[in-house]
């Protein structure tokens, strides 16, 4: 197998945003009347598109969300980002070492991606190579976003490797017929492996994994 393209998820893989986003979501869900713990938020929402998350929240509420919900959640989340967001440990050095093409394929919106990548100094590394689930019909665990990224980058799926940290993301990569490495810093390694990922625990391991293909 020739690896011509490495496709990175963003949240939890490039930027350490997952804990902050999920703290904000836990806060706002409890505020609107959904009693839920941080751990339950992780289990229910991580890796899913925002539109899918909204559907789940409305199902739990049994009523439509207020028109201000998305904006309110974004304001809380971005405030935390501005205060605490950092790149995932070691990822900057890893990006410097990868000799093939790279891109991002994320469940986040372009606005969120631009914000998090700018705050962490990673945005210039992915100029014109950032793909959002808003560009495709279906979010993860469907393969649409990864197939779209590969097509836009001019590569066949079999020559792509995906770096993911969520179960829906791993399932999406497998469905796209791409090899996938599952970053297990904050996700159960056994579940990542069961979903189809080759599991690793530190970004320092990634160059060796890519070279082993």
TrEMBL record:
InterPro entries membership: Beta-PGM-like, HAD-like_sf, HAD-SF_hydro_IA, HAD_sf, PGP-like_dom2
Needed co-factor(s): Mg(2+)
Alphabetized Pfam families for the sequence: Hydrolase
GO molecular function, one term: hydrolase activity
Entry keywords, A to Z: Hydrolase, Magnesium, Metal-binding
NCBIfam families, alphabetized: HAD-SF-IA-v3
Assigned protein family: Belongs to the HAD-like hydrolase superfamily. CbbY/CbbZ/Gph/YieH family.
Name under which the protein is recorded: HAD family hydrolase
Species this chain originates from: Nostoc flagelliforme FACHB-838
């Amino acid at each position: 197998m020739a690896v011509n393209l490495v496709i990175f998820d963003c949240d939890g893989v490039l930027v350490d945003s997952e804990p902050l986003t999920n703290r904000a979501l836990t806060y706002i869900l409890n505020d609107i009347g959904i009693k839920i713990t941080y751990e339950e938020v992780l289990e229910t929402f991580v890796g899913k598109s925002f539109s899918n998350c909204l559907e789940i929240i409305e199902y739990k509420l049994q009523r439509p969300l207020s028109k201000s919900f998305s904006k309110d959640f974004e304001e809380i989340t971005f405030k935390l980002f501005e205060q605490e967001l950092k790149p995932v440990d070691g990822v900057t050095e890893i990006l410097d070492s990868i000799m093939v093409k790279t891109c991002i394929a994320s469940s986040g919106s372009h606005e969120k991606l631009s914000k998090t990548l700018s705050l962490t100094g990673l945005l210039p590394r992915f100029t014109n190579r950032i793909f959002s689930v808003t560009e495709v019909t279906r979010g993860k665990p469907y393969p649409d976003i990864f197939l779209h990224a590969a097509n836009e980058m001019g590569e066949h799926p079999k020559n792509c490797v995906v770096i993911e940290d969520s179960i829906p993301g791993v399932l999406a990569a497998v469905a796209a017929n791409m090899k996938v490495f599952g970053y297990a810093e904050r996700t159960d390694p056994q579940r990542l492996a069961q979903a189809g990922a080759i599991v690793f625990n530190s970004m320092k391991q990634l160059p060796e994994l890519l070279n082993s293909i």
